[in-house]
């Protein structure tokens, strides 16, 4: 199927919330990892989200070029071509973008999509994330409101972060402290600033103890009930029935989370869960295995010629694609809650 249109993406998100499941959002940095993500979703018979961080986009442009917009556009255009060969809907998203990179990443990409929409085409990306977790909440939401106006016009969904996801991702480091937990006041300020959908649709990465990177269960205390509290205070403010879930929530930093914690978060309105660390390892592990197993073939030891079939990149990238795809298919299974995550 082609990359999801704005209408298909909205339907995907609505279906996830109605049926209490979440889509894995898989970070990619190359055509190889993008192919693995597409394969993983197809093997799971699930629609999904593929995303590109600022660092991932810079890397994709080439280590000599190092231009975020160039890399993001290149991967997105590649995805638009290749995704047509797969029987699932895929949405393209850009991950964490801090304040100092907005003008060099998100704003130019939104402008590209706006130009496409003006010509009667679909946007290049279906959603973008503004990560304002490092600035005061009022400033975070002021910038979010400005971006929401731009993204809504370009038929794009905005993602914001309210609270702080701890740990490190792409060089962005956040402390592990009380800001890991979004407060009821934070949720209320968010809906005051951005509305309840009438100004444009947005996703909220609320925080409940999440940490980027690798950690074992128990090192950080996840409190999914914070998501429930946020939905409740906003539903009450908006006069919605009890049990309503006005926010579309995103789960960042989920490595090491217990399955029951994931399912609880999904039941409170999480419809997107970012997955990066686990899939990086799933991609790299088969390459390591290949190199150890074929040590004398991938190196020209003691003047020998090695084994061309062993050091041909296709020989180990094929296994890497399979490994990452399998991990993505597993993630799709784990993010089912009461509903079914199927291709629409």
UniProtKB/TrEMBL annotation:
Q: Which GO molecular function entries does the Swiss-Prot or TrEMBL record give?
A: fructose-bisphosphate aldolase activity; zinc ion binding
EC number(s) per UniProt?
4.1.2.13
**Biological process per Gene Ontology, one example term:** glycolytic process
UniProt binding sites for Zn(2+) 2: 131, 161
Among InterPro entries, the record links this protein to: Aldolase_TIM (IPR013785), FBA_II (IPR000771), Fruct_bisP_bact (IPR006411)
Q: Which residues form the active site?
A: 95 (proton donor)
Question: Which residues are recorded as binding Zn(2+) 1?
Answer: 96, 212, 252
SUPFAM superfamilies (alphabetical): Aldolase
Cofactors named for this entry:
Zn(2+)
Q: Which cellular component terms (GO) are annotated to the entry?
A: cytosol
Question: What's the domain of life for this entry?
Answer: Bacteria
- The reaction(s) this protein catalyses: beta-D-fructose 1,6-bisphosphate = D-glyceraldehyde 3-phosphate + dihydroxyacetone phosphate
Question: Which residues are involved in binding dihydroxyacetone phosphate?
Answer: 213, 253-255, 274-277
Alphabetically sorted, this entry's keywords are: Glycolysis, Lyase, Metal-binding, Zinc
The pathway where this protein functions is: Carbohydrate degradation; glycolysis; D-glyceraldehyde 3-phosphate and glycerone phosphate from D-glucose: step 4/4
Pfam families hit by this protein: F_bP_aldolase
Cofactor note as given: Binds 2 Zn(2+) ions per subunit. One is catalytic and the other provides a structural contribution.
Q: Which family does it belong to?
A: Belongs to the class II fructose-bisphosphate aldolase family.
Briefly, what is this protein's role? Answer: Catalyzes the aldol condensation of dihydroxyacetone phosphate (DHAP or glycerone-phosphate) with glyceraldehyde 3-phosphate (G3P) to form fructose 1,6-bisphosphate (FBP) in gluconeogenesis and the reverse reaction in glycolysis.
Q: Specify the protein name.
A: Fructose-bisphosphate aldolase
From which organism does this entry originate?
Saccharothrix variisporea
